[in-house]
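Why run this: before we spend reagent on co-expression, it is cheaper to look at a predicted model of the complex and decide which construct boundaries make sense. The entries below are exactly what would go into the expression plan.
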Amino acid sequence: MSPIKRRSSKSKQKQIVENPKDFEQIKIYQDIQVNIDQIIEIFGKSPELVTKVVRESPTPYSIAFLRTLANETRVDENITEPLVEWGMNSSSGNNDVTSITNHLNVSSKVKQTQTFKEIVNGMLDGCVILFVQNSDVGLKIPVEPTPSFRKVEETKIQTVVRGPREGLVEDLDTNMSLLRRRVRNSKLRFSPMKIGKETHTKVVVTYVDDLVDQKTLDTIMERLNKIDTNKILDSGMVEELIEDRRYTPFPTIKSTERPDIVCGEILDGRVAVLVDGSPFALVAPVTFVSFFHIAEDYYEKFDLATFIRSIRLLAFWISLALPATYIAVTTFHAELLPTNILINLAAQREGVPFPAFIEVIMMEIIFELLREAGIRMPRPIGSAISIVGALVIGEAAVQAGLISAAMVIVVSLTAITSFISPYYAFSGAVRMLRFVLILFAATSGFFGMAAFTIAMVIHLSNVTSIGKSYLSPIAPLSISKLKDVLFRFPLWWDKSKFYRAFQKIKRVTRG
Amino acid sequence: MGKTSRIVLFLSFMFMVSGCTGAEELNIQAIVTAIGFDKGEDGNIDTHFQIVYPGGSAQRLGGAPQGGQGNAVYTYTISAKTMMETVDKARNLVPRKLFFPHIEVIIFGEEFARDVGFSYLIDYMERDNEVRDEIMVFTAKDDTAKNLLSVYTSLTANPSEGIIARVNNTFSPMGLRDGIYLEDVIRWTYGHKRDTVTMGIVRSNPEAPADTKEAMENIHANQNAYDLTGIPLYKKDKLVDWLTLKESKGWALIDDKAKETIFISTDCPSGSGTFGFLLKDVKTKKKATVNGTDITITVSLSGRGILREFRCDGSVKDPAYLDKLKQSINKQMELYMDATVEKAKENEVDPFGFGNYLYRNQPKEWKNIKDNWMDVFINNTKVEAEADIEITGVGTRRKSVHEQPKQEQ
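The model came back. Tokens follow.
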């Protein structure tokens, strides 16, 4: 452990700038102790700040770093120890900065800095700062960062049956590594930047150089650079800031925790944005139909994938429109039902005091409450909620005569289908629109539902995702791209750039 | 004013304008499944609404436990001069709102059908937006509609369900492909140049009490049952005569309404004994030759027969014998059809749509005869029935038990 030399009133020099606002103006001082004092002034008396002043050396020096960012052990091994060794072996006074640099045990390039702005930024990046007596430069030495806290684990939200299981984590370097291991191609680009005036969050824009749509890339870069915000704590905040400005319940940027999805998307010419501290990567532009697609569609056989896709589409409609349809049919269009079903439904409604509309709204709200409670509550109490939920929704409400039994089926089916969509933001949009649709159905039956659906389609065709049409390839229609909308055509049918390699292999293997 | 706020304003207007009009909760509706008409007193018409009480017909109720279980259906009777008055009075009588789209059955009492005629209700039924056309129409033979609608039926809680099931059952006596609906009746009577028919219905045991729930606890189910009987012939909107079951079959064959029908006792070729068969895939084609005032209408029937019961002394293994069977079958069917035509001529009605057929296929000739078509039909029209039924199956038995003892003797 390096000794921490505390600032004492005796050693406090008059030269340092107190309460500095702008580090740019402050130049590196000649005296190593003053430099350290200036850093302490900037960072405050923080336990994470490690400083050391060594005067018993041929060349007196001082070092400073944040041990929350730079790995302390590595600093000792690679910087402190070599310097001590060098000091013992060499007796002649040599204050050459270059010779000190040569004795450091680091592979990365050591940068010389002139101002405290660069010093502070370097320390926040996890570098070690070295000052040499009587020199007006500071050395910025990159070292190994502190180990990331969470290891790569199986994905929690977007799970698959078949396919890679590892998910992105909070650590940006790990995430880049996860992507790089999948795309071993020199064209894969990571373009770094920092966003957030207070947080300086590292953000990396990822794309494949010759596949990417240049206009999209430019737009995203421009918007990221324009972001003027104090804090970025998750990719969700970046997402909201770079979306096309349009009020829409549907997500226009996809967020995924799966590295294989990110790779698939950037290989299709899209752009991904990784944010340090967030296990969710952003992908843009996206289309409406892409929210029905998951990575597994391409790992399973094409016929099964197509079948499951259509199930997902069905689930979307059930989740959106089933409660509304129930209201419309039972209160406006009872003539549409076969007589026997009508009588059964009517029998269930005997003695129910509320209109069907109130019944549906009540049950949907109860379910939304249960769902929210299920997410927020501490894990060990999980089973309690499900018992209460099942009893309240399933049995007691019917027994108490508050709701009819068919309503339980409607609400549970709606609930189940809302979980089928692999993207939470998308199913969230459906959840909200469901209530609007219920309102329309309760006031004007199927007519209202049709009006709402038409309005929704008009709205959707007006939405853009980073300048690209949201309903593409359905509107504007692109016949050739339709093969990956509802159907998932076999891979060998694809003529896009990505699969040309496939074809080559196929031709070779078939002789 | 911004675009968004304009849209919001428009939508809120929409909600206000619609204001839930037309919304009816299920438990304030009285689902009418059957209507009956009888001739009442003082020139009134008795209309019977059979209304489903869902609480009584479904197994499980949705709401809180009820005080007492009700019955599956109830019949309300209203006496009035017009349909509108009837419905208006019903509003006072029935505690729920009458809901017409699920009417499945209309029954005319015999007296109503003979003296009043069904034109009484047609205009209202057609004008009302709730009433549908797919309602099966029945006439009660020698009975009132009220008596028929006062039956709690076994096996089906809702009597109209039971009636419809009988018609749709393949082996119903007439083997109709489909029932006769209000739509058909209206089209035939007022659109096409033909006379209408409905289906006929009787109670299996007209005297037995079947109008309380206790009657359903009796093991003898006959007393809560209906029989489909021969079809009634109507002249315009009034009943004139009844066809027997055999004649009804003839009617169904001529009018191409038969689907799968059974013939129970056909005489054997040798004379003694009978055999029964199932007739399938029946198709009827009509052809008319007009020769001055003489008209010959050829009705040719094709289809296949499957042997169901064989009590003759021949062997079905013998192709020559099968040919003879085939001839008997054809002969029998021709007899059925001839008898029906005879009956129709007697009653001066044309329930087969021959007039319509001529109008469509020989419009020039039709012009000459359309004014006195009924005269021409009765006196100068010859209907030739030709049947050509192939026996395609003899069932799962080749050698009949009836052949066996005779060979041993």
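The first strand of chain A starts at residue 49 and ends at 54. DSSP finds 16 helices and twelve strands in chain A. Bring this page to Monday's planning discussion.
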